Structure prediction request, 71 residues.
Amino acid sequence: MKEAKALLIAVAHYNKVYALIIALMLDCGLRISEVPALEVGDIDFERSRLHVRESKRNKDRSIPTSKGVLG
Prediction:
């Protein structure tokens, strides 16, 4: 956990978008292969959920996210 926080702080100074992607990966348990397909429209801010398309075995899934990541 300490290492993840240090990584996010370091990346946030460089690029806020990359920091958000890494935070989502850590918070939601995303696979590396799922990240390139993510789009802004896949984030449901009201329900705090992330829609992942073509996940394992080409199935879609909806993942809860914490308010802190999307805050």
